Amino acid sequence: MLRRWWQIWIFNPYGNFNVKRQGRIDGKLAIPPWTSEQQPDFLRELYYLTQTTLEALVEAWHKSDRYLKGTWVAATLHQQQAEKELVEAADREEQAQQRHEEVHGRRLAVPDSPRGRTFFYWLIVAFALVCEFPFNAIVFQQLGVSDYATWLMAGTVAMGLVACAHFLGAQMHQPAKGLMTITNRVLLATIPFITIVCVAMLRRDHMRQQALSNLDPAELLATSLMINVLIFWALTYCSYKLHDPVIEAVLKALIQRQNKEQRAHLAEKATASARITRQKEHQQALQDATGWVSEVRRRAALYRRTHIRVRPDRDQNSTPAPEWFNREPDVTIPDALKELEWSTTADTVDQTAPRMSFSATTR
């Protein structure tokens, strides 16, 4: 029950003590007359205070509800937009899957993490670099150069071979139109191996001059070429699969759909939270108003009991109670607090507080 100073202060004009006191005074003076339909002045003041208090409660609730409902409407509209975007993202994903099925003859299995294939590809690239560095370093050490120059040249060849394989695989999905495109592909496929052949020729000449080994230089060249070709074409194939535009379209649509799902879920939670908050505030306002009404009715009944008990003419009339006993104003919960309106139209969001009034003298 809502607590106010006039409900708890013992010396206030409308406390229990003064209600009984005023009831005894009016009863002994037989005010108002037995047949009067007008409420006693004390009760009229009490009912007027109740009316103004309930109007203030309605106005305060309306001001609070403007913000609460605005928050809920904004969250609802955001949720509707998020759900609409989710449907569109799901349609785009389905179209991308159908295109994948037309090209590859099957639908793409949805991975747990769409970015996992990219991570796996760069893991293979890192492994290839780790293998290329010591392998090429062994080759360049046979040229009789310093360790710094050996690792520098080994790193250059290793990075160049990996980079050429990466870009060659990425370009394989593009149509081979134009001299520039064909030239780029030829250079990317041949430059690493031309470099390897040139290094092998230098190594052969150095080995012959120094008589460092009885191995056939042609066999060393063939072994080096085969290992590098294996690494090169493995990386090229992985790059080709990674940059497949059909697969990329499916994964892009999948990521977008997952993001839209997350946004829709968060929007749904925000809408539910706004709705629950509004309902809680409404229940509190309704509880406050109910406390006021029940308390006023109790005090009015206390006044009437005390009044009729001490009234000198109570046995001198044909009716068991004064006429004004049956003319109590209809003190009820305002309609504005009884129900919540959940429309999302703009006019209901900006609605004004309804006027609430009742007569303090008649029923």
**Rg for CA atoms:** 45 Å
Assign an overall shape: rod-shaped
What is the CA-CA span between the terminal residues?
25 Å
Q: Tell me, rounded to a whole number, the average pLDDT.
A: 80
Q: What are the secondary-structure elements, in order, as H or E?
A: HHHHHHHHHH
Number of helices: 10
Helix content: over 70%
Percent in strands? under 5%
**Secondary-structure content class:** mainly alpha
Give the low-confidence spans. 346-363
The largest β sheet comes out as: none
DSSP strand tally: 0
Explain what the structure shows.
This protein is mainly alpha-helical and 363 residues long. It has 10 helices and no strands. The chain has helices at 5-8, 16-28, 41-104, 116-141, 147-171, 179-210, 217-242, 245-310, 335-338, 346-349. Helix 4 (116-141) packs antiparallel against helix 5 (147-171). The longest helix has 66 residues, at 245-310.
Briefly say what this structure is.
With 363 residues, the chain is mainly α.
List the topology elements.
Blueprint: H1 5-8, H2 16-28, H3 41-104, H4 116-141, H5 147-171, H6 179-210, H7 217-242, H8 245-310, H9 335-338, H10 346-349
Helix pairs in contact: 2-8, 3-8, 4-5, 4-7, 5-6, 5-7, 6-7
